Recover the amino acids of this structure.
């Protein structure tokens, strides 16, 4: 998968490396600030309250 | 052919190449393939070039064909390296895909931990700074007039916060001078992400009954992270608009998550009418787990009115 993506990036090697890094940064940002806050309530690591 | 078996094709002397000692070439015109050996493999049609030596090789994979250095895309030679079978290629692709999937899963888990342990702190810091600003704003425009009798403290106005609204600041001197999270109303997921949350329906600060607050232990600013470091007698100061309520820790315990009775007006005495103002703090226990709850109990010691220029009535670490 990673190889496939890299092979489909345009341009010479420096451009490809830059594009790959930008792509990775974009995915990480999306996960940290959009996906994880949404899925977090289903991960029961954070329950601090007392409920019957 | 010992060198061919150890996988070092470049430096291997060519079999039958010119100068290889197997006989000179006897061609008049320059042969474009002069540097290539002619190899006869048993079981394959022999390709014999007149004037060039033929070499019989028992194992085709053992043959090394020299190529001009620096040119990996030379025309395919007479001998091509045997391609792996289709089944082996499929197996290789599957193994690679599975490996990449597992690596991706590992990275996802690591990233989620990063999010939980550090990124949520950023969110909470932003919420807290907003809550502090709003609280300071509302406290600077008090509706209460000057007391009729200056010697008597004015009656407390009971805060009536909406869910999610900040209404008090918690100071625990043992946890440092800058420890001052704003307590919000409500213990839903959203409220606890902003700061310690007050259980709706339990007593307000200073009120007779049980003032119950929950807070995160390891994420979202971890306001209750060090609750286990408190000692009996430690002050816990709840600041409201015009005064400080000084509670003192009485004891702590670890209970199951369903022990709702710790939030009773008299903790762990269901149905008993309260006579004193107490405070109960709950958080998860052990750290990074939601298996049990750490409960810290405190009882109201005194009330200190705010004075201009006066700070929190206890210095760091002071008991």
């Amino acid at each position: 998968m990673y190889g496939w993506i890299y092979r489909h990036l345009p341009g010479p090697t420096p451009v490809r490396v830059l594009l790959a890094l930008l792509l990775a940064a974009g995915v990480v940002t999306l996960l940290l600030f959009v996906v994880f806050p949404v899925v977090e309530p289903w991960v029961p690591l954070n329950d601090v309250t007392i409920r019957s | 052919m010992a060198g061919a078996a150890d996988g070092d094709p470049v430096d291997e002397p060519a079999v039958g190449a010119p100068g290889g000692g197997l006989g000179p070439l006897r061609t008049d015109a320059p042969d474009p393939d002069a540097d290539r050996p002619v190899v006869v493999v048993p079981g394959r049609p022999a390709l014999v070039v007149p004037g060039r030596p033929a070499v019989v090789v028992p194992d085709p994979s053992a043959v090394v064909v020299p190529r001009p250095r620096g040119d990996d895309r030379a025309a395919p030679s007479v001998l091509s390296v045997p391609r792996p079978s289709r089944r082996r290629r499929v197996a290789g692709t599957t193994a690679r895909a599975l490996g990449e999937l597992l690596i991706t899963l590992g990275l996802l888990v690591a990233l989620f931990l990063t999010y939980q342990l550090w990124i949520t702190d950023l969110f909470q810091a932003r919420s807290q700074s907003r809550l502090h600003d709003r609280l300071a704003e509302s406290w600077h425009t008090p509706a209460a007039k000057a007391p009729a009798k200056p010697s008597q403290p004015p009656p407390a106005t009971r805060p009536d916060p909406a869910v999610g609204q900040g209404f008090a600041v918690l100071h625990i001197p043992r946890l440092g001078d800058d420890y001052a999270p704003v307590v919000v109303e409500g213990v839903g997921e959203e409220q606890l992400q902003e700061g310690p949350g007050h259980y709706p329906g339990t007593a307000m600060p200073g009120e007779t009954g049980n003032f119950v607050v929950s807070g995160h232990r390891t994420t979202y600013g971890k306001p209750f992270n060090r609750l286990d470091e408190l000692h009996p007698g430690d002050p816990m100061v709840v600041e409201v608009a015009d005064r400080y309520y000084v509670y003192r820790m009485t004891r702590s315990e670890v209970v199951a998550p369903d022990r709702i009775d710790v939030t009773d007006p008299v903790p762990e005495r269901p149905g008993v009418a309260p006579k004193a103002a107490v405070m109960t703090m709950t958080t998860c226990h052990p750290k990074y787990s939601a298996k049990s709850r750490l409960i810290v109990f405190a009882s109201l010691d005194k009330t200190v009115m705010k004075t201009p220029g006066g700070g929190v009535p206890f210095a760091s670490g002071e008991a």
In short: The longest helix of chain A spans residues 13-39. DSSP finds two helices and no strands in chain A. The two ends of chain A are 47 Å apart (CA to CA).
